[in-house]
Design brief:
The complex is a heterodimer of chains A (366) and B (423).
Chain A lengths: L8 E10 L8 E9 L3 E5 L6 H9 L6 E6 L2 E2 L10 E4 L11 H11 L4 H14 L15 H13 L5 E5 L7 H18 L2 E6 L2 H7 L2 E6 L2 E6 L1 H6 L4 H6 L4 E11 L2 E6 L4 E6 L8 E6 L18 E10 L3 E8 L2 E9 L12 E4 L6 E5 L1
Parallel strand pairs in A: 3-8, 3-9, 6-7, 7-8, 13-19
Antiparallel strand pairs in A: 1-2, 1-4, 4-5, 9-10, 11-12, 11-14, 12-13, 14-19, 15-16, 15-18, 16-17
Helix pairs in contact in A: 2-3, 2-4, 3-4
Chain B lengths: L1 H5 L11 H40 L5 H6 L1 H7 L12 H16 L3 H9 L5 H12 L10 H8 L6 H9 L7 H6 L2 E4 L2 E4 L7 H32 L2 H12 L6 H12 L4 H9 L14 H25 L3 H9 L4 H29 L3 H6 L7 H10 L4 H25 L9
Antiparallel strand pairs in B: 1-2
The chains are: A alpha+beta (366), B mainly alpha (423).
The complex binds adenosine-5'-triphosphate and magnesium ion.
């Protein structure tokens, strides 16, 4: 994995475990390092332990085992208010009895920063999120997106080096979310702050992050830059969780220099790239992205294996066509094709043959 | 905004002003809603509001004097009290006539009682005169002045007549003046004699002790409410039952229990002596005085403080405290700057509730308050049931009611009633 050398690690989780009830581990053996300035997203299904990790980092939960270090110093025994970590909460947690300016000046006041200095910093932070003229309002008088910006400004106003955000955009509508995604990444990179961002929206994770850590069941399943995560998932969970995926199961029949042939359960054969399989006869689940499936034989290798498929449904989605096929007994096989002038529109009932490049089809563990 | 103003009222599709058609549309609904609450409304009106209003009316109602003694009142109108001379014969004749009529209807003791509130002695004066008046021959033409003075020498005193004249109005401020330790005299309102001034002090004590009780409730209730709001649901429910337990026990039982606890030979003194904090011969006197009232009432009113506080604190999300700490605040700063201000509406609601309940409290001060720990309500009860001076009782009650309303209004101005959450 890239960026894991401990020397340039700013934040490090070392063999961290967490249990709330003494019976089940919510976080199991977490190892994670992130260098200064990185934007890391924790992505995973509900209950996978993302918030727990964030809370341990912020100091609101204690690790049952293991160490969390910032700049090489263990912070296990440092109380939250001394950690100097900025935090944006899912519900923003803006103090309702204070104005926006008072909210922002709060972290500066507790740091005993002088009045004029404070005012200047508050103003700069508000201007940064384009909320300069809202300083006198109360949080309740702002829209969701505006509250979001203020929460962000408040987490940044005392110039922390590390900022944590727990699903900060969860309550916003799609358009605003996309706008804020851009603004947050922009700000984070501009200010050079290290960011740990939690979401269970995979698009958000892919578009915003330098690296994404996919969580499931208290473990990091894969940690990689977005493109690598999407194109080279390390296991079935990641393949399923990130983007849309077609899966077929079978047995490895032949395996040689980075390619393998998998015999599906109905006897048909396909080409694949061995990722988590190593020997002939092993059970495997192959996974292929809908947009990498080809049904125009002329675009495939001459010796590529193909599969018979029956078109079940054709859905027009504007920029793409989405077609549902029956392949090897699987009724949920999806292919996507770009809406181009020369693109074929498949008709339900049509019999076609589909194939793909071997490296697009990943043979993962069963 | 301005364009609406210049264009006049907004019109509905048929040309009628929108406001009017909306009102029409809502009227049916409103009528139906009114019908549903009508039984309750009538019940409350008959059993609650009308009695209260009629009671309050008694605080100014003084028609009994003119009703019973119409001729005397009319005759006295021309008498100039400042002249220093007794009224003339016509006044005495009118008095004799009224007295005879009243005595026949057995009403002379009532009017005597009424005037006795102003000056003791009137009761016996009227009883005696009434007894004699039955035998009066009104048409005999003989002078009644000498006769009446003969029956009771008080009729020969100017003071008697002055009081009669002063209190012969239909509606009087006399009861209210009495309620604030003043009295109605021929020379206007004056302070009551020193030895009779008790009520203002009692009002002051009621306010002061209610304040102390409210303060104690805040101090004791706040941590409990905080724990309630922050415990996991199951433990919180258990604790809540403990808080509510007193509600399910009779008020009388709880107060009597305090009587047992607080006595000089009671549990608390015994424990303190046993622990060696106080000597056996200097046991604390914590009952039949203000201390007793404050202790018992704090205990009894505590749930009324805890519940509103709890319901407010429940809505304060823990993420606020976390946010404050992540921003660098210590536990104390986070609490004081972030949590506490948000819990103030709960404190306010609880305080209003407790204070208003406290200043009208009766049973507990009556039982544990002794002489020094009673409230104005105990005085009202005394005038209602023992001295039968209902007018004064009504005036005291009105003042109490006004005080509560003023406090409520002031609170609304300062904190805002819509900030108050009771649950
Ligand atoms: N305070 C707590 N006490 C006991 N169990 C908890 C507590 N907080 C979380 N858990 C449990 O720990 C597990 C992980 O929770 P966590 O909040 O970290 O999940 P998450 O990944 O943030 O999920 P989501 O995406 O829904 O926010 C869950 O099974 C949850 O039930
Ligand atoms: Mg979470």
């Amino acid at each position: 994995m890239a960026n894991t050398q401990n020397e340039d690690a700013f934040v490090a989780f070392e063999r961290v475990q967490k249990s709330y009830d003494g019976e089940t581990l919510v976080v199991k053996d977490l190892n994670l390092t992130l260098p200064k300035g990185e934007f890391l997203t924790m992505l995973g299904p509900s209950g996978s332990g993302k918030t727990t990790c964030l809370m341990m980092l912020a100091g609101f939960e204690t690790a049952t085992h293991g160490e969390i270090k910032i700049d090489g110093v263990s912070i296990n025994n440092i109380p939250p208010h001394k950690r100097g970590i900025g935090m944006v909460f899912q519900n923003y947690a803006l103090f309702p009895h204070m104005t926006i300016a008072e909210n922002l000046s709060f972290p500066l006041e507790v740091r005993k920063i002088g009045k004029s200095d404070r005012e200047a910093k508050v103003k700069r932070a508000l201007d940064m999120v384009e909320m300069g003229s809202f300083g006198g309002r109360r949080p309740a008088q702002l829209s969701g997106g505006q509250q979001q910006r203020v929460a962000l400004a408040r987490a940044l106003v005392f110039e922390p080096e590390l900022v944590l955000m727990d699903e900060p955009l969860g309550a916003l509508d799609k358009q605003l979310r996309e706008k804020m995604q851009f603004e947050i990444t922009h700000l984070a990179h501009e200010l050079g702050i290290t960011t740990v961002y939690v979401t269970h929206d995979q698009t958000e994770a892919l578009t915003m992050s330098d690296r994404v850590a996919v969580f499931d069941d208290g473990r990091i399943q894969q940690i990689a830059p977005p493109d690598e995560l999407y194109e080279s998932p390390q296991n079935s969970f990641v393949a399923q969780f990130i983007g849309e995926n077609n899966t077929l199961s079978g047995t490895v029949k032949q395996i040689s220099n980075g390619k393998c042939v998998v015999q599906l359960d109905n006897g048909e054969e396909i080409d694949a790239k061995p990722v988590n399989v190593s020997k002939v006869g092993e059970r495997t689940t192959v996974s292929i992205r809908p947009e990498r499936v080809e049904f125009d034989k002329t675009r495939l290798h001459a010796d590529a294996h193909t599969l018979k498929a029956e078109v079940l449904e054709f859905i027009y989605m504007g920029d793409i066509f989405r077609t549902r096929l029956r392949v090897a007994g699987n009724d949920e096989f999806i292919i996507k094709s770009r809406n181009a002038p020369d693109q074929v529109r498949l008709q339900p009932g049509q019999q076609i043959e589909i194939g793909w490049l071997a490296e697009d089809c990943r043979a993962l563990e069963a | 905004m301005s364009d609406i103003k210049t264009n006049g009222p907004v019109l509905a599709a048929d040309g009628t002003p929108l406001k009017r058609s909306l009102a029409r549309a809502l009227r049916v609904e409103k009528t139906r809603a009114l019908m549903l609450i009508a039984p309750l409304l009538i019940f409350v009106l008959i059993s609650f509001i009308i009695p209260i209003v009629s009671m309050l009316f008694r605080s100014v109602d003084n028609r009994i004097v003119e009703d019973t003694m119409p001729y005397t009142v009319a005759a006295l109108k021309t008498w100039d009290a400042s002249s220093g001379a007794l009224p003339d014969e016509p006044v005495y004749a009118a008095l004799a006539r009224d007295m005879k009529a009243a005595a026949e209807k057995k009403e002379h003791t009532r009017i005597g009682g009424r005037l006795n509130y102003e000056e003791s002695g009137f009761s016996s004066l009227f009883r005696k005169t009434g007894r004699a008046a039955k035998k009066f021959d009104l048409d005999s033409g003989e002078p009644f002045k000498a006769k009446l003075i003969d029956i009771h020498k008080d009729w020969g005193k100017i003071e008697t007549w002055k009081i009669m004249q002063t209190h012969s109005v239909d509606y009087t401020n006399g009861y209210f003046l009495n309620a604030v330790d003043m009295k109605r005299t021929p020379d206007g309102a004056q302070m009551q004699d020193d030895d009779k001034r008790v009520l203002l002090k009692l009002f002051g004590r009621t306010m002061w002790m209610s304040l102390v009780i409210t303060g104690m409730c805040i101090l004791l209730g706040y941590p409990v409410a905080w724990i309630l709001a922050n415990l996991p649901a199951r433990q919180a429910n258990l604790l809540m039952i403990l808080v509510l337990l007193p509600f399910w026990t009779s008020l009388l039982v709880r107060t009597s229990a305090w009587k047992v606890m607080l006595q000089q030979q009671g549990v608390i003194n015994d424990v303190l002596v046993w622990l060696g904090f106080i000597a056996d011969d200097s046991r604390l006197i914590i009952i039949n005085n203000a201390t007793g009232t404050i202790i018992a009432m704090t205990h009894i009113l505590l749930p009324f403080m805890i519940l509103p506080m709890y319901s407010v604190m429940q809505t304060i999300q823990p993420s606020y405290l976390r946010a404050a700490k992540s921003l660098g605040a210590t536990n104390w700063t986070a609490f004081w700057r972030v949590y506490f201000p948000q819990s103030i509406p709960g404190i306010g609601a609880g305080s209003i509730l407790v204070f208003i309940l406290a200043i009208g409290y009766y049973i507990t001060p009556e039982i544990v308050g002794g002489n020094k720990g009673v409230f104005i309500s105990n005085r009202i009860a005394y005038h209602i049931s023992t001295s039968l001076n209902w007018g004064l009782a009504a005036a005291l009650g009105s003042i109490l009611l006004a005080a509560v309303l003023i406090l409520y209004w002031a609170y609304d101005k300062i904190v805002g009633i819509d900030n108050v959450k009771l649950g």
